[in-house]
Design a protein that fits this description.
It is a single chain. It is built from 9 helices and 10 strands. It has 270 residues and is an alpha/beta fold. Strand 7, helix 6 and strand 8 form a beta-alpha-beta unit. Helix 5 packs parallel to helix 6 and helix 7 crosses helix 9. The chain is globular, with a radius of gyration of 19 Å. The chain starts with 6 loop residues before the first strand and ends in a 16-residue tail after the last helix.
Length: 270
């Protein structure tokens, strides 16, 4: 029996329109993401990665193609989708607890059970002693954890992550990548991550989707597998497989898009 993928994108194309004309952003994108899978998307700057997330979360509509979540057309899917951006966008005048409860507050769904759920997330992920603190009192890594808890408060099954670690210094970025990856997998969420950091993509993802330059099409989808001895993104960076995968992704990004054959277009696996 074939299980319905959490996310299924078929022949997706999108262009931006202005007085100066039309700019193609995405061209014939097709792929699927299984429930509980962590997929990273890499590609040249400006190729349309963030545009793809905007289409998935419903901020924009595609010119062509279809998006299904749990087999339901995107336009009819009512369950919240989590979206984390480069900056945490915590409200500085609110406490960490009230920041975490912002989504339920706006949606008018703060119940005792919901509040207890959010409190449990904050305690479980190292923020229990900072419920009354303001964001300015937290480190960059703690702020990103608070932002993730705020995202999880609405109990989304699908998370879209648009370079959520890029604003952090390198050392903090490594630790937060570990932390957030563990939280997402512990919560059994499905995640789609945009990143320019190839090492981050290799260390965190189950598969990596490599996009071409704009208008973006799929050059290759690479499955990533590490031995069980390497469980966390930080540990995977020391695995013997790591430089091999890194080189494979790098070669795909460096290869001129004209050399990609039709056999790679829209392929979900090797």
């Amino acid at each position: 029996m074939t299980l319905t993928p959490k996310l299924f994108i078929r022949h997706l194309s999108h262009s931006y329109h202005s007085k100066k004309g039309e700019t193609a952003a995405l061209s014939d994108i097709s792929f699927s993401v299984d429930s509980g899978e962590f997929v990273a998307i890499v590609g040249p700057s400006g190729c349309g990665k963030s545009t793809l997330l905007s289409l998935i979360c419903g901020l924009s509509s595609p010119d062509e193609g279809e998006i299904f979540i749990d087999g339901i057309p995107r336009s009819q899917y009512k369950t919240p989708i989590g979206y984390m951006l480069q900056k945490d966008h915590l409200l500085e005048w609110r406490s960490i607890l009230s920041n975490a409860l912002l989504g339920p507050e706006i949606s008018h769904c703060i119940t005792p059970a919901k509040r207890e759920y959010v409190l449990s997330l904050l305690h479980n992920y190292g923020l229990g002693n900072f419920l009354s603190s303001k964001p300015s009192e937290l480190s960059g890594g703690m702020r990103q954890r608070a932002a993730l808890v705020r995202t999880l408060a609405m109990e989304p099954e699908l998370l879209l992550l648009d370079e959520p670690f890029s604003a952090l210094d390198y050392q903090t970025r490594l630790q937060v990548c570990d932390d957030i990856s563990e939280i997402i997998r512990e919560q059994k969420k499905t995640a789609l991550l945009i990143t320019h950091d190839l090492a981050e993509a290799v260390s965190i993802a189950d598969r990596i989707i490599v996009l071409s330059k704009r208008p973006a099409s799929i050059k290759k989808i690479l499955p990533i597998r590490f031995s069980e001895a390497y469980n966390t993104p930080l540990q995977k960076r020391n695995a013997p497989e790591f430089p091999v995968y890194f080189q494979m992704v790098w070669e795909q990004l460096c290869e001129p898009s004209e050399k990609t054959g039709e056999q790679n277009k829209g392929t979900n696996n090797w």
